[in-house]
Amino acid sequence: MSAASFERGYNALKAQIDAPIASYFQSCVHCGICASACLFYEETKDPKYTPIHKLEPMRKVWEQEYTLWGRLMSAVGLRKKLTDDELAEWQELIYNSCTLCGRCSLVCPVGNDIVYMVRRIREGMVAAGHAPEGLIGASKRAVTIGSPMGVRLPALEAQIKRLEKSTDLKINMDKSDVDYLVLLSSMEIMNFPEYLEAIARIMRHAGKSWTLSSKAFEATNSGIQIGSFDIAKELVSRVVNAAEELRVKTVISPECGHAYTAIRWEGPNLMGRPFKFKVQHILEVLDDLREQGLLKTEGFAEGRMTFHDPCQLVRRGGVEEPPRRLMNMVVKDFVEMPDAGKWNWCCGGGGGVSSNEDAEELRTKAFKIKVDQIKPLKVDKLVTACANCRIIFEEGLEAYQMEDLPVIGLTEMLAEHLVETKGESA
Protein backbone atom coordinates (compact mmCIF):
# COMPACT_ATOMS: atom_id res chain seq x y z
CA MET A 1 0.00 0.00 0.00
CA SER A 2 1.18 3.57 -0.73
CA ALA A 3 2.21 5.83 2.13
CA ALA A 4 -0.85 6.95 4.04
CA SER A 5 -1.59 10.52 5.03
CA PHE A 6 -4.53 12.60 6.17
CA GLU A 7 -4.55 14.45 2.85
CA ARG A 8 -4.80 11.15 0.94
CA GLY A 9 -7.53 9.98 3.27
CA TYR A 10 -9.56 13.17 2.94
CA ASN A 11 -9.30 13.10 -0.84
CA ALA A 12 -10.25 9.42 -0.88
CA LEU A 13 -13.32 10.14 1.26
CA LYS A 14 -14.28 12.99 -1.05
CA ALA A 15 -13.86 10.76 -4.12
CA GLN A 16 -15.98 7.99 -2.60
CA ILE A 17 -19.03 10.23 -2.23
CA ASP A 18 -20.99 9.26 -5.30
CA ALA A 19 -24.64 9.88 -6.17
CA PRO A 20 -26.01 7.02 -4.01
CA ILE A 21 -24.07 8.18 -0.93
CA ALA A 22 -25.12 11.81 -1.43
CA SER A 23 -28.75 10.73 -1.73
CA TYR A 24 -28.45 8.52 1.37
CA PHE A 25 -27.18 11.43 3.49
CA GLN A 26 -29.89 13.71 2.12
CA SER A 27 -32.68 11.21 2.74
CA CYS A 28 -31.65 10.12 6.27
CA VAL A 29 -34.48 11.11 8.64
CA HIS A 30 -32.38 10.53 11.80
CA CYS A 31 -34.90 8.02 13.13
CA GLY A 32 -32.23 5.82 14.75
CA ILE A 33 -33.97 2.59 13.74
CA CYS A 34 -30.65 1.29 12.41
CA ALA A 35 -29.36 1.20 16.02
CA SER A 36 -31.82 -1.54 16.95
CA ALA A 37 -30.50 -3.65 14.05
CA CYS A 38 -26.85 -3.48 15.15
CA LEU A 39 -25.60 -6.20 17.51
CA PHE A 40 -22.93 -3.89 18.94
CA TYR A 41 -25.55 -1.30 19.90
CA GLU A 42 -28.00 -3.90 21.16
CA GLU A 43 -25.46 -5.49 23.50
CA THR A 44 -23.96 -2.22 24.81
CA LYS A 45 -26.76 0.36 24.40
CA ASP A 46 -24.00 2.88 23.65
CA PRO A 47 -25.37 5.41 21.11
CA LYS A 48 -21.96 5.73 19.46
CA TYR A 49 -22.57 2.31 17.89
CA THR A 50 -25.62 3.57 15.96
CA PRO A 51 -24.71 2.59 12.39
CA ILE A 52 -25.42 5.93 10.73
CA HIS A 53 -23.32 7.69 13.41
CA LYS A 54 -20.31 5.61 12.36
CA LEU A 55 -20.40 7.52 9.06
CA GLU A 56 -20.11 10.99 10.63
CA PRO A 57 -16.65 11.78 9.12
CA MET A 58 -17.97 11.04 5.64
CA ARG A 59 -21.16 13.02 6.30
CA LYS A 60 -18.99 15.98 7.34
CA VAL A 61 -16.99 15.83 4.09
CA TRP A 62 -20.21 15.51 2.05
CA GLU A 63 -21.81 18.51 3.72
CA GLN A 64 -18.79 20.79 3.45
CA GLU A 65 -17.71 19.78 -0.04
CA TYR A 66 -20.98 19.11 -1.84
CA THR A 67 -23.76 21.20 -0.23
CA LEU A 68 -24.27 24.98 -0.49
CA TRP A 69 -25.26 25.22 3.16
CA GLY A 70 -22.16 23.36 4.28
CA ARG A 71 -19.87 25.51 2.16
CA LEU A 72 -21.42 28.74 3.50
CA MET A 73 -21.17 27.57 7.10
CA SER A 74 -17.54 26.59 6.58
CA ALA A 75 -16.77 29.91 4.88
CA VAL A 76 -17.98 31.90 7.92
CA GLY A 77 -16.25 29.57 10.35
CA LEU A 78 -19.37 27.88 11.75
CA ARG A 79 -18.32 24.40 10.61
CA LYS A 80 -15.00 22.85 11.59
CA LYS A 81 -13.08 20.83 9.01
CA LEU A 82 -12.55 17.12 9.47
CA THR A 83 -9.28 16.38 11.26
CA ASP A 84 -6.88 13.47 11.38
CA ASP A 85 -7.61 13.07 15.10
CA GLU A 86 -11.29 12.53 14.29
CA LEU A 87 -10.46 9.78 11.83
CA ALA A 88 -8.22 8.14 14.42
CA GLU A 89 -11.07 8.31 16.95
CA TRP A 90 -13.52 6.79 14.45
CA GLN A 91 -11.33 3.76 13.68
CA GLU A 92 -13.01 1.82 16.47
CA LEU A 93 -16.49 2.59 15.12
CA ILE A 94 -15.74 1.88 11.48
CA TYR A 95 -13.75 -1.34 11.98
CA ASN A 96 -14.19 -2.77 15.51
CA SER A 97 -17.96 -2.39 15.68
CA CYS A 98 -19.08 -3.11 12.12
CA THR A 99 -19.10 -6.55 10.50
CA LEU A 100 -20.71 -5.29 7.26
CA CYS A 101 -23.56 -7.66 8.12
CA GLY A 102 -26.18 -5.49 6.43
CA ARG A 103 -28.92 -5.70 9.06
CA CYS A 104 -28.93 -1.89 9.37
CA SER A 105 -29.46 -1.52 5.62
CA LEU A 106 -32.37 -3.95 5.79
CA VAL A 107 -34.30 -1.98 8.42
CA CYS A 108 -33.64 1.55 7.14
CA PRO A 109 -37.10 2.99 6.38
CA VAL A 110 -35.81 5.17 3.52
CA GLY A 111 -33.71 2.42 1.95
CA ASN A 112 -30.24 3.72 2.75
CA ASP A 113 -27.59 1.08 2.16
CA ILE A 114 -25.48 1.83 5.23
CA VAL A 115 -23.15 -1.10 4.54
CA TYR A 116 -22.35 0.37 1.13
CA MET A 117 -21.39 3.58 2.89
CA VAL A 118 -19.23 1.85 5.51
CA ARG A 119 -17.47 -0.05 2.75
CA ARG A 120 -16.68 3.29 1.06
CA ILE A 121 -15.60 5.16 4.20
CA ARG A 122 -13.05 2.41 4.85
CA GLU A 123 -11.34 3.44 1.60
CA GLY A 124 -10.65 6.81 3.21
CA MET A 125 -9.52 5.25 6.47
CA VAL A 126 -6.97 3.07 4.67
CA ALA A 127 -5.61 6.03 2.70
CA ALA A 128 -5.34 8.06 5.91
CA GLY A 129 -3.48 5.29 7.74
CA HIS A 130 -6.24 4.51 10.22
CA ALA A 131 -6.98 0.88 9.41
CA PRO A 132 -6.34 -1.66 12.23
CA GLU A 133 -2.89 -3.23 12.32
CA GLY A 134 -4.37 -6.74 12.15
CA LEU A 135 -6.16 -6.02 8.89
CA ILE A 136 -3.14 -4.23 7.43
CA GLY A 137 -1.01 -7.30 8.14
CA ALA A 138 -3.61 -9.67 6.68
CA SER A 139 -3.89 -7.55 3.53
CA LYS A 140 -0.11 -7.43 3.04
CA ARG A 141 0.13 -11.21 3.41
CA ALA A 142 -2.74 -11.68 0.95
CA VAL A 143 -0.98 -9.58 -1.68
CA THR A 144 2.57 -10.87 -1.18
CA ILE A 145 1.94 -14.50 -0.15
CA GLY A 146 -1.55 -15.10 -1.53
CA SER A 147 -3.25 -15.75 1.80
CA PRO A 148 -4.22 -13.45 4.69
CA MET A 149 -3.12 -16.15 7.14
CA GLY A 150 0.18 -16.70 5.31
CA VAL A 151 -0.83 -20.12 3.96
CA ARG A 152 1.39 -20.99 1.00
CA LEU A 153 0.87 -23.55 -1.76
CA PRO A 154 3.15 -26.17 -0.09
CA ALA A 155 0.85 -26.17 2.94
CA LEU A 156 -2.14 -26.93 0.71
CA GLU A 157 -0.16 -29.57 -1.17
CA ALA A 158 0.70 -31.21 2.16
CA GLN A 159 -3.00 -31.34 3.09
CA ILE A 160 -3.81 -32.86 -0.31
CA LYS A 161 -1.07 -35.48 0.07
CA ARG A 162 -2.33 -36.41 3.54
CA LEU A 163 -5.92 -36.65 2.31
CA GLU A 164 -5.07 -38.79 -0.73
CA LYS A 165 -2.93 -41.08 1.42
CA SER A 166 -5.63 -41.63 4.04
CA THR A 167 -8.54 -42.06 1.61
CA ASP A 168 -9.23 -43.30 -1.91
CA LEU A 169 -9.92 -39.76 -3.09
CA LYS A 170 -8.08 -37.85 -5.83
CA ILE A 171 -7.58 -34.08 -5.70
CA ASN A 172 -6.88 -32.41 -9.05
CA MET A 173 -4.61 -29.38 -9.32
CA ASP A 174 -4.62 -27.12 -12.40
CA LYS A 175 -6.81 -29.45 -14.46
CA SER A 176 -8.40 -27.60 -17.37
CA ASP A 177 -11.85 -27.85 -19.01
CA VAL A 178 -13.60 -29.09 -15.85
CA ASP A 179 -17.00 -28.28 -14.39
CA TYR A 180 -15.80 -26.52 -11.26
CA LEU A 181 -12.86 -24.51 -9.91
CA VAL A 182 -13.03 -24.91 -6.12
CA LEU A 183 -11.79 -22.07 -3.94
CA LEU A 184 -10.82 -22.48 -0.28
CA SER A 185 -10.31 -20.14 2.63
CA SER A 186 -7.12 -20.29 4.68
CA MET A 187 -9.19 -21.35 7.68
CA GLU A 188 -10.50 -24.37 5.76
CA ILE A 189 -6.98 -25.40 4.81
CA MET A 190 -5.52 -25.05 8.30
CA ASN A 191 -8.48 -25.42 10.70
CA PHE A 192 -11.12 -27.42 8.82
CA PRO A 193 -9.38 -29.71 6.26
CA GLU A 194 -12.44 -31.97 6.43
CA TYR A 195 -14.12 -29.47 4.07
CA LEU A 196 -11.79 -30.40 1.21
CA GLU A 197 -12.41 -34.09 1.82
CA ALA A 198 -16.16 -33.45 1.77
CA ILE A 199 -15.89 -31.62 -1.55
CA ALA A 200 -13.91 -34.48 -3.07
CA ARG A 201 -16.48 -37.06 -1.89
CA ILE A 202 -19.45 -35.03 -3.12
CA MET A 203 -17.94 -34.33 -6.56
CA ARG A 204 -17.07 -37.99 -7.05
CA HIS A 205 -20.56 -38.98 -5.90
CA ALA A 206 -22.21 -36.51 -8.31
CA GLY A 207 -19.91 -37.40 -11.21
CA LYS A 208 -18.66 -33.84 -11.62
CA SER A 209 -15.16 -32.84 -12.69
CA TRP A 210 -13.33 -30.24 -10.62
CA THR A 211 -9.94 -28.81 -9.75
CA LEU A 212 -8.00 -26.53 -7.48
CA SER A 213 -5.68 -23.87 -8.88
CA SER A 214 -2.08 -23.50 -7.74
CA LYS A 215 -2.27 -19.85 -8.76
CA ALA A 216 -5.54 -18.99 -7.02
CA PHE A 217 -6.73 -21.39 -4.32
CA GLU A 218 -7.47 -18.67 -1.74
CA ALA A 219 -10.97 -17.19 -1.68
CA THR A 220 -10.56 -14.74 1.20
CA ASN A 221 -10.42 -11.14 0.02
CA SER A 222 -8.80 -8.85 2.60
CA GLY A 223 -9.22 -5.90 0.26
CA ILE A 224 -13.00 -6.00 0.77
CA GLN A 225 -12.58 -6.19 4.55
CA ILE A 226 -10.04 -3.41 5.00
CA GLY A 227 -11.63 -1.22 2.34
CA SER A 228 -9.09 -1.07 -0.48
CA PHE A 229 -10.33 -1.18 -4.06
CA ASP A 230 -6.82 -1.85 -5.40
CA ILE A 231 -6.16 -4.83 -3.12
CA ALA A 232 -9.65 -6.26 -3.65
CA LYS A 233 -9.23 -6.03 -7.44
CA GLU A 234 -5.79 -7.65 -7.33
CA LEU A 235 -7.11 -10.61 -5.33
CA VAL A 236 -10.21 -11.06 -7.50
CA SER A 237 -8.15 -10.84 -10.69
CA ARG A 238 -6.03 -13.82 -9.59
CA VAL A 239 -9.16 -15.98 -9.39
CA VAL A 240 -10.56 -14.65 -12.65
CA ASN A 241 -7.29 -15.24 -14.51
CA ALA A 242 -6.99 -18.79 -13.15
CA ALA A 243 -10.62 -19.64 -13.96
CA GLU A 244 -10.32 -18.34 -17.50
CA GLU A 245 -6.95 -19.99 -18.07
CA LEU A 246 -8.38 -23.35 -16.96
CA ARG A 247 -11.63 -22.74 -18.90
CA VAL A 248 -13.84 -23.87 -15.99
CA LYS A 249 -17.61 -23.53 -16.18
CA THR A 250 -18.23 -22.47 -12.58
CA VAL A 251 -16.15 -21.09 -9.71
CA ILE A 252 -17.31 -22.32 -6.30
CA SER A 253 -17.00 -19.95 -3.38
CA PRO A 254 -16.27 -21.96 -0.21
CA GLU A 255 -18.02 -21.93 3.15
CA CYS A 256 -16.97 -18.33 3.68
CA GLY A 257 -19.49 -15.51 3.65
CA HIS A 258 -17.50 -12.49 2.59
CA ALA A 259 -15.54 -14.47 -0.03
CA TYR A 260 -18.86 -15.06 -1.78
CA THR A 261 -19.63 -11.33 -1.72
CA ALA A 262 -16.16 -10.53 -3.03
CA ILE A 263 -16.14 -12.84 -6.03
CA ARG A 264 -19.87 -13.07 -6.82
CA TRP A 265 -21.20 -9.57 -6.26
CA GLU A 266 -18.24 -7.16 -6.12
CA GLY A 267 -15.97 -9.13 -8.46
CA PRO A 268 -17.38 -8.08 -11.86
CA ASN A 269 -17.52 -4.44 -10.74
CA LEU A 270 -13.93 -4.59 -9.53
CA MET A 271 -12.81 -6.10 -12.86
CA GLY A 272 -15.00 -3.75 -14.90
CA ARG A 273 -16.44 -6.57 -17.00
CA PRO A 274 -18.64 -9.68 -16.79
CA PHE A 275 -16.98 -13.00 -15.99
CA LYS A 276 -16.71 -15.77 -18.61
CA PHE A 277 -17.77 -18.28 -15.96
CA LYS A 278 -20.52 -18.69 -13.38
CA VAL A 279 -19.95 -18.08 -9.66
CA GLN A 280 -21.88 -20.00 -7.00
CA HIS A 281 -21.57 -20.55 -3.27
CA ILE A 282 -21.00 -24.19 -2.36
CA LEU A 283 -24.52 -24.40 -0.89
CA GLU A 284 -26.02 -23.26 -4.19
CA VAL A 285 -24.02 -25.96 -5.99
CA LEU A 286 -25.16 -28.62 -3.51
CA ASP A 287 -28.77 -27.52 -3.84
CA ASP A 288 -28.51 -27.73 -7.64
CA LEU A 289 -27.07 -31.25 -7.37
CA ARG A 290 -29.94 -32.17 -5.03
CA GLU A 291 -32.50 -30.84 -7.49
CA GLN A 292 -30.87 -32.78 -10.35
CA GLY A 293 -30.99 -35.98 -8.31
CA LEU A 294 -27.18 -36.15 -8.13
CA LEU A 295 -26.93 -35.75 -4.35
CA LYS A 296 -28.31 -38.87 -2.72
CA THR A 297 -28.09 -39.25 1.04
CA GLU A 298 -29.10 -41.91 3.52
CA GLY A 299 -29.85 -41.80 7.23
CA PHE A 300 -30.16 -38.84 9.54
CA ALA A 301 -27.76 -37.12 11.90
CA GLU A 302 -28.53 -37.74 15.54
CA GLY A 303 -29.70 -34.96 17.80
CA ARG A 304 -31.43 -31.62 17.68
CA MET A 305 -29.75 -29.04 15.42
CA THR A 306 -30.06 -25.43 14.33
CA PHE A 307 -28.51 -23.47 11.46
CA HIS A 308 -26.69 -20.14 11.65
CA ASP A 309 -27.12 -18.08 8.47
CA PRO A 310 -23.86 -16.31 7.50
CA CYS A 311 -24.78 -12.66 6.87
CA GLN A 312 -23.06 -12.28 3.50
CA LEU A 313 -24.71 -15.44 2.28
CA VAL A 314 -28.30 -14.89 3.32
CA ARG A 315 -28.76 -11.13 3.75
CA ARG A 316 -26.33 -9.78 1.16
CA GLY A 317 -26.38 -12.82 -1.13
CA GLY A 318 -30.00 -14.03 -0.98
CA VAL A 319 -29.07 -17.69 -0.33
CA GLU A 320 -31.78 -18.45 2.24
CA GLU A 321 -33.69 -21.58 1.19
CA PRO A 322 -30.87 -23.86 -0.11
CA PRO A 323 -29.35 -24.51 3.35
CA ARG A 324 -32.76 -25.38 4.74
CA ARG A 325 -33.50 -27.85 1.95
CA LEU A 326 -30.06 -29.41 2.50
CA MET A 327 -30.47 -29.54 6.29
CA ASN A 328 -33.80 -31.33 5.91
CA MET A 329 -32.10 -34.04 3.81
CA VAL A 330 -30.03 -35.26 6.77
CA VAL A 331 -31.54 -33.76 9.96
CA LYS A 332 -34.91 -34.84 11.37
CA ASP A 333 -34.91 -32.54 14.40
CA PHE A 334 -34.03 -29.22 12.75
CA VAL A 335 -35.13 -26.14 14.65
CA GLU A 336 -34.80 -22.54 13.48
CA MET A 337 -33.22 -19.81 15.60
CA PRO A 338 -35.34 -16.78 16.44
CA ASP A 339 -34.84 -14.19 13.65
CA ALA A 340 -33.60 -16.91 11.28
CA GLY A 341 -32.88 -16.32 7.62
CA LYS A 342 -32.31 -12.77 6.40
CA TRP A 343 -33.01 -11.35 9.87
CA ASN A 344 -30.42 -13.52 11.60
CA TRP A 345 -27.93 -11.81 13.90
CA CYS A 346 -24.25 -11.77 12.90
CA CYS A 347 -21.74 -13.87 14.85
CA GLY A 348 -19.75 -10.67 15.36
CA GLY A 349 -16.62 -11.63 13.44
CA GLY A 350 -17.41 -10.66 9.85
CA GLY A 351 -16.11 -7.69 7.88
CA GLY A 352 -12.57 -8.19 9.15
CA VAL A 353 -13.50 -7.89 12.85
CA SER A 354 -12.10 -11.38 13.51
CA SER A 355 -8.69 -10.23 12.20
CA ASN A 356 -8.69 -7.21 14.48
CA GLU A 357 -7.26 -7.94 17.94
CA ASP A 358 -8.40 -4.55 19.20
CA ALA A 359 -12.01 -5.64 18.63
CA GLU A 360 -11.84 -8.88 20.63
CA GLU A 361 -13.37 -7.60 23.89
CA LEU A 362 -16.27 -5.85 22.13
CA ARG A 363 -16.81 -8.82 19.81
CA THR A 364 -17.07 -11.21 22.73
CA LYS A 365 -19.55 -8.91 24.45
CA ALA A 366 -21.67 -8.68 21.29
CA PHE A 367 -21.65 -12.48 20.93
CA LYS A 368 -24.12 -12.64 23.81
CA ILE A 369 -26.84 -11.95 21.26
CA LYS A 370 -26.04 -15.36 19.70
CA VAL A 371 -25.96 -17.03 23.11
CA ASP A 372 -29.45 -15.68 23.81
CA GLN A 373 -30.64 -17.06 20.47
CA ILE A 374 -29.14 -20.52 20.94
CA LYS A 375 -29.65 -21.36 24.62
CA PRO A 376 -33.47 -21.68 24.58
CA LEU A 377 -33.30 -24.07 21.60
CA LYS A 378 -31.48 -26.75 23.64
CA VAL A 379 -29.72 -28.06 20.52
CA ASP A 380 -27.04 -30.76 20.38
CA LYS A 381 -25.16 -29.21 17.45
CA LEU A 382 -24.96 -25.91 15.59
CA VAL A 383 -24.49 -26.03 11.82
CA THR A 384 -23.28 -23.18 9.62
CA ALA A 385 -21.68 -22.58 6.21
CA CYS A 386 -18.83 -20.17 6.92
CA ALA A 387 -15.40 -21.07 8.31
CA ASN A 388 -15.05 -17.65 9.89
CA CYS A 389 -18.41 -18.03 11.65
CA ARG A 390 -17.28 -21.45 12.93
CA ILE A 391 -14.13 -19.97 14.49
CA ILE A 392 -16.06 -17.09 16.06
CA PHE A 393 -18.71 -19.47 17.41
CA GLU A 394 -16.09 -21.76 18.95
CA GLU A 395 -14.39 -18.81 20.66
CA GLY A 396 -17.67 -17.20 21.71
CA LEU A 397 -19.20 -20.39 23.07
CA GLU A 398 -16.05 -21.00 25.11
CA ALA A 399 -16.23 -17.46 26.51
CA TYR A 400 -19.82 -18.10 27.65
CA GLN A 401 -19.05 -21.59 29.03
CA MET A 402 -20.91 -23.34 26.20
CA GLU A 403 -17.88 -25.03 24.63
CA ASP A 404 -19.60 -28.43 24.76
CA LEU A 405 -21.85 -27.39 21.85
CA PRO A 406 -20.22 -28.69 18.62
CA VAL A 407 -20.14 -26.36 15.60
CA ILE A 408 -20.00 -28.13 12.23
CA GLY A 409 -20.09 -27.26 8.55
CA LEU A 410 -23.12 -28.16 6.44
CA THR A 411 -21.03 -29.45 3.52
CA GLU A 412 -19.17 -31.92 5.74
CA MET A 413 -22.37 -33.11 7.36
CA LEU A 414 -23.93 -33.85 3.96
CA ALA A 415 -20.82 -35.71 2.82
CA GLU A 416 -21.09 -38.00 5.84
CA HIS A 417 -24.53 -39.15 4.64
CA LEU A 418 -23.80 -39.77 0.96
CA VAL A 419 -25.02 -43.02 -0.48
CA GLU A 420 -21.78 -44.76 -1.42
CA THR A 421 -22.08 -46.81 -4.60
CA LYS A 422 -19.61 -49.25 -6.07
CA GLY A 423 -17.61 -47.95 -8.99
CA GLU A 424 -17.38 -44.33 -7.87
CA SER A 425 -14.03 -42.96 -9.01
CA ALA A 426 -12.31 -39.66 -8.46
TrEMBL record:
PROSITE patterns: 4FE4S_FER_1 (PS00198), 4FE4S_FER_2 (PS51379). It comes from the Bacteria. Pfam families: CCG (PF02754), Fer4_8 (PF13183). Residues 89-120 form the 4Fe-4S ferredoxin-type domain. Keywords: 4Fe-4S, Electron transport, Iron, Iron-sulfur, Metal-binding, Transport. GO terms for molecular function: 4 iron, 4 sulfur cluster binding; metal ion binding; oxidoreductase activity. PANTHER family: FUMARATE REDUCTASE IRON-SULFUR SUBUNIT, HETERODISULFIDE REDUCTASE. This is Heterodisulfide reductase. It comes from Thioflexithrix psekupsensis.
